[in-house]
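Dear Dr. H.,

I hope your travels went smoothly. While you were away I took the liberty of generating a structure for the chain from your last submission, since the lab meeting agenda had it listed for discussion. I wanted you to have the full record in hand beforehand rather than looking at slides cold. The sequence, exactly as received, is reproduced here:
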Amino acid sequence: MYDSEPLPVRHEAPAWADLGAAMGRAPLRQGVADDWSLALRARGIPHRPLRAGARWRILVPVARLDDAVQELTAYLEEQPVGPPEPEPRPGPLSPAVQTSVAVVALAAAFTAFIAAPHPGLGLYPDTWQELGQADSARILGGQWWRAVTALTLHADAAHFVGNAAFGGLFTALLGRAVGAGTAWGLFVACGLAGNLLNAWFHGPGHLSVGASTAVFGVVGAMGAAAMAAHRRPDLLRAVAPVAAGLGILAMLGTEGERTDLGAHLFGFLAGLPLGWLAGKRAARPGPERTPPGRWAGLGGLALVAAAWGLALAGR
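The corresponding predicted structure, in token form, is as follows:
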């Protein structure tokens, strides 16, 4: 009946009210939400279902809330009384977590592949580094794809594990708010924008590798998306998510001899407007959340593949 992709739990639009809360039954199991939706549709009362984790909420226009409550009360009184519905068993991992696990596994497989020599293909570990690292001089010279390929390269195993752990965690959290596909599309977009800005800032002579630019882009996007979800003017609630992101940047993104602070900072800054737009789209009420998020994720994957295609073609 509904799109399986998670929908935003928070909804503060003043024109709508939570029918389940008005009935003292929020949030609702899916079966109950289906029944209520059918009853409301039969009476011509407009409504919008929103997914809240494993449960559902049904929103109705504030002007029709009393009508909806009366109709549902009458509907429930007509239903036969049966045994209580059993609590649902814990379901599988959320789509955001599943997607993050799949992306990290794909990244690990690619990292293992490029770490081994492939004489038959004329490819060696040093070849990948030379072709794909974020060389600012070459980026400024037109090889923009290095801003993407560098996200898939790492200095050593510990560097990869750190980025995979934090990147997978933060992107899964962002995916719960804006959708898994959108979150990973933002991951690639923030990394691309952050590395381009970093190359422009440093000028020729700067080299870097690693996905941390994209990781901190996701941190910025998380804060901005949460800020975009607050529709009521509340400075503290609006600024707090971005302030939390800055705290994470300060704690995790400024230490270590090989830390590229510029990449982290520019990735974070790139994530702010992109996260804001994604958060605004996710917060819009509607009966469904549709494929744009999935296309964003596939677009990010296609961009990485295209970037490496350009890099390899230039050997």
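Two observations you may find useful: The chain is about 60% helix and 5% strand. The chain has two domains: 1-91, 95-313.

With kind regards,
E. W.
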